[in-house]
Amino acid sequence: MDRSWMPTVVGVLEIIAAICAVFGVVALLFACGIMNSVPDIQNDPEVPIQMIGGLLVTFACLLAIGGALSFIGGVSAIRRRGWMWAVTGAACACFLMPPAGLFAVVFAILGEKEFSDRTG
User: Fold this and answer.
1) Is 86 within the bounds of a domain?
2) What pLDDT score does 1 carry?
3) Residue 95 within a domain
4) 33-84 per-position pLDDT tens digit
5) Three-state DSSP class for 3?
6) 81 Rama sector, left if φ>0, alpha if ψ -120 to 50, beta otherwise
7) Burial class for 46, CB neighbours closer than 10 Å (0-12, 13-18, 19+)
8) Which residues are CB-contacts of 15 (< 8 A; sequence separation ≥ 6)?
9) Given this model, what pLDDT does residue 119 score?
10) Taking a C-beta distance cutoff of 8 angstroms, is the pair 17, 101 a contact?
11) Fewer Cβ atoms within 10 Å of its own Cβ: the N or the C terminal residue of the chain?
């Protein structure tokens, strides 16, 4: 079986998307902490601070889950095992980094025959 560059590129793109997701989670949680420590916001009755904080934490959790799936898929793609994990990670990378994720999905589908276990 001839090895091409496609699964490696898929893995690298997915791992980069996962790293960006980590930075996004840190930024969202930092914003939540800053928002809760500003006295002007806390004393303003028109600002729904609990709702905004809950939304920030929810988005951070979704971003963390997507980043974890993207990282697992990236490692699977580099190892050329678990094609379904690679495709799942590429789909998550589409939401984390749309242009790179789209390339990851295309290359994962085109490089399917290079994976030793195509079912995951």
Assistant:
1) yes
2) 54
3) yes
4) 888 787 777 777 777 888 888 899 999 999 999 999 999 999 999 999 889 9
5) coil
6) beta
7) exposed
8) 70, 71, 74, 75, 78
9) 53
10) yes
11) N
State the greatest distance between any 2 C-alpha atoms of the chain, in Å, as a whole number.
66
Confirm if 73 and 90 have CB atoms less than 8 A apart.
Answer: yes
Token digits of residue 24: 């996004």
| Within-domain flag for 1 | no
Which tokens in the block code for residue 50? 């609990």
Instruction: Please give the residue range of the domain that contains residue 90.
Output: 6-39+48-114
Q: What angle do CA 44, 50, 45 make, to 5 degrees?
A: 20
| Under 8 Å between Cβ of 14 and 93 | yes
- Token code pair at residue 103: 């390339």
What's this model's pTM, rounded to 2 decimal places? 0.85
**Phi, psi dihedral angles at 6 (to 5 degrees):** -60, -50
119 lies in a domain? Answer: no
- Count structural domains, the chain: 1
How far is residue 110's CA from residue 31's CA, in Å, rounded to a whole number?
Answer: 40
